[in-house]
Amino acid sequence: MAVVELQFLPPDTSDIQTLHVEEASSADGAFTEIQTFPAGSSPEYISSVEVTNAIDPLDWFRIRWQDSVGNFTPYSQPIQGGTTTIVAQVMDRVILRNPTVNSLIAGQEAEAVVADYFSVNDPYSIDPTQANPKLLSGLTLLALARVYTLRLISAGTTAKWSSGLVSMDTSTNTAQTWGAVDKMIELANRELGRNYSVVAMIKEIEVAGGFRQLKSLDVSRALIEIQ
Description:
Blueprint: E1 2-7, E2 16-24, E3 32-38, E4 40-41, E5 44-45, E6 48-54, E7 60-67, E8 79-80, H1 86-97, H2 103-118, H3 133-155, E9 160-163, E10 166-169, H4 174-191, E11 214-218, E12 223-226
Antiparallel strand pairs: 1-6, 2-3, 2-7, 4-5, 7-8, 9-10, 11-12
């Protein structure tokens, strides 16, 4: 038997009891259940396990969760032993930079930025070998910025709070607070190679069959003046 560590994002439902782990020699299967684990208590479900019944540490593994009445969640995407997903890497980096971030929230925002950057519906489908250190840094900064933005929005009337890299005083320093998040997004886009501008040419507008002329166009306010 071999030992393999698996990391994953736990579900956000409140009735999960058991994690089921399956193994196959290839990503296409056929998969066989090899071990189960107690899921823990909501919302602090387990997010990693050490599988001790694996046949080969380089085999492929998938998981699904079971609730108290025996219903199962859909299977996860298969992942090869000894590798990890880009989502998991970004989530770990977010928590490393700010340990106060809930792992479930970090994972959800990591899923969002990975899916957006690679323009895919399933962020777990991306080959982890595509993630070089610079790309991981940019995705982590974007995920952090999303977390901080959500905290800012939900802070409501709270005057002050501190979150890892950013200390926020919403009563007197809101502009600087949002400015810090903007700087984080700017740095993330630079790391991801997203610094570009687009200049578009607009076709000349013909008004009233040519009997009227376009006098002015204000793109910033989407205003067109005709005479």
